[in-house]
Design a protein that fits this description.
The chain is α/β, with parallel strands linked by helices and 923 residues long. Helix content is 38%, strand content 16%. The chain contains 31 helices and 33 strands. The strands form nine sheets. It has a seven-stranded mixed beta sheet. A six-stranded parallel beta sheet has the order 30-31-29-28-32-33. The protein has a five-stranded parallel beta sheet with strand order 18-17-16-19-20, sandwiched between helices. Helix 19 links the parallel strand 16 and strand 17. The radius of gyration is 28 Å and the shape is globular.
Amino acid sequence: MNLYKEYIKEIEERKGQGLHPKPIDRADLLNEIIAQIKDTNNANREDCLKFFIYNTLPGTTPAAGAKAKFLKEIILGQETVAEITPAFAFELLSHMKGGPSIEVLLDLALGNDSNITKQAADVLKTQVYLYDADMARIKEAFEKGNAVAKEILESYAKAEFFTKLPEIAEEIKVVTFIAGEGDISTDLLSPGNQAHSRSDRELHGKCMITPQAQDEIKALQAQHPDKSVMLIAEKGTMGVGSSRMSGVNNVALWTGKQASPYVPFVNFAPIVAGTNGISPIFLTTVDVTGGIGLDLKNWVKKTGANGEVVRNESGDPVLEEVYSVATGTVLTINTKTKKLYNGDKELIDISKAFTPQKMEFIKAGGSYAIVFGKKIQTFAAKTLGIEAPLVYAPSKEVSVEGQGLTAVEKIFNRNSVGTISKKALHAGSDVRVTVNIVGSQDTTGLMTAQELESMAATVISPIVDGAYQSGCHTASVWDKKAQANIPKLMQFMNDFGLITARDPKGVYHAMTDVIHKVLNDITVDEWAIIIGGDSHTRMSKGVAFGADSGTVALALATGEASMPIPESVKVTFKGNMASYMDFRDVVHATQAQMLHKFGGENVFQGRIIEVHLGTLTADQAFTFTDWTAEMKAKASICISEDETLIESLEIAKGRIQIMIDKGMDNHNQVLQGLIDKANKRIAEIKSGEKPALRPDANAKYYAEVEVDLDVINEPMIADPDVNNKDVSKRYTHDTIRPLSFYGGDKKVDLGFIGSCMVHKGDMKILAQMLKNIERQQGKVEFKAPLVVAPPTYNIVDELKAEGDWEVLQKYSGFEFDDNAPKGAARTEYENMLYLERPGCNLCMGNQEKASKGDTVMATSTRLFQGRVVEDTAEKKGESLLSSTPVVVLSTILGRTPSIEEYKLAVEGINLTKFAPSHKLLVG
């Protein structure tokens, strides 16, 4: 009983942290527990019963297999446990969510004991997590005349697993809790620096917001035991930055309901809200947990007597409160009228949160159950030879006669499944689509694995063209946390059918490349739909959606995703880039010009940005599509010229071949299949059979933005504006300032070049600038540390081949060594160049950070509070985001450069250039 003793020891250690016993997922440990349950005189028996009944993870975990087997033995009378009757054993099986439990239930239902078969069938009628093998068993038994199989199929065809669920309460009482003012990043709900604990739900729950906030939530719950606590982003958007399933899990853990009395720390039905609603990517995660997300609109722009918006001295609109949601306010959500009330007073219409589809998610306890339920109903009706009755709300289908299609509408129409209409569908239509490429990243991957286990999935869907498990978020430091989690994750995902960054067998060299760069390379069709476990899943080929770990798991297991076709905003360009400007400045200027044009309204939020870049290859274009996460867009699509797309696909083929040469392909030859698809696509374009994706000329857009390149005459910097008097204006990514704003004297404490925003060209710019500076000043001397993390090993290899890496080595004081990776995060930096291992590094903030209170100039994507740099009591840390040349020069000078210093430093350097296409990029 060594494992049991170790478990008891771990329990004592967790008690010291204020934690309960960790849920059991190991079969060998549970088998020791079962052995002690069988021994009626065992001193540990009572505890073992509690562990077995209440603390074993369901689904396809090894422990679930052992639990299901023992319950089967009890039901068949092969084992007798006084505390677990056969009826209770069936109840426990009903909460195990598929996999081994379904196998056992089918064994019992299709057996010969009529009493047992009926009980097993009754439980099976409530289950939805069935896969092909399970359905094949039922079908085979039905075709052989088995009456129980027929009964189960008839129940499935009626979708009784859904129709017999309790109806949603007409009134839901909530008490408000202001979680923060302004946009609330998911980092507040689930900090990146605690990513290692995400799969341990109770432990990770302790990092939500602050201990003080947690105490306030508990006090509200004690004061209002009959109400749900609703977390609110006052004057902002809830859940910006990422989907982060762990963020929703934490909110549900503190404020939601327990999903099952026999499964610990898995809660559902959280309620969240924001003055400006919920970030689209985060709202998907709320749907996964059967939660509610409200757009409060409780602050609006103040208007004067003339009807114009009143502005403050900074030119920002003045807001006025429509109604209060101060902490402790009791409100009523009416799901019938779809209105929010304070007492009898109606506050606002919230019907968008209670569409027929969302009502189904709430009733079923989450969107997974609906997805699987629809598949089972369809299977059962087809097997019985009947038409499935209309149980679920029909998908909304919008088709406008004579209206053309945007790029995303074309992609969704091509990939749609199960649509009724034969007409082309437009924005607003609810569509089930096939998913071509799926990405899982390493700090959310453990949760994705848990979700796959909980939905009883064992192998990747054959529909998926390719899937990749990254190692980039834990690349910087190979510490004990990473060593404990990552190999286990890689083994699971490799077995499931993904291409993995680390080889569980240890044959090929670990590849810690940034996940988005790899997904951009393995996307070989601009008509593809990509789902990835990170908000920067924003490929410059196809349309890509960042998603929570659960939606990623669903895409891996089923090869499908469901969502409305989003509206699009068309972005085009005119004029010419100045010779000293970098494309990164165009990206920031796009956001600034859009906000200016629409009076501060972000028309990108929640929509597709259809950007007509035309002439930029996928590597360079990704700098734009990647930043659309910071623009709060749902996703983006890059429209390319034929020749540009072919060039991008050739680059992708070369990089996939490198992965094959390293030994990363699997027995299904997924990577080779992607090269074959790329060759087919290139041939289609060259022959004219199927040119590059274009929207129709008569497509309808929510808005159109034409970016004027002529007016971009100095570098543009995204500023967190940490000292803005209006707290809601801080850390938004919407404050874009020209370099001259800083007057050439803002102190810079550290520079960072890296993350998914940079490409090989940026590394070459760095090398050229250092040579320039040495030529102009006689030497290269850093007045602030410069941390450089190339996004991929391919880029490092290409730089070595072209001589640029040698230049970087010459000026560096540190170079990563894969044979001796860092075992601890760096806490102090010297004024020198650091060449770090490819991966996310400072951008993620979960392993390494700048010193507290630093002002950081970075090429990365995140400027949220505490992400790259934390505050001190005396000074707020701030992360300003800019182009590579600005970062380099800021670290040489130890301050922001003047525009004159900048122009001199980039003289003769091949910056990333962009010229608008002269071709009409429409179909």
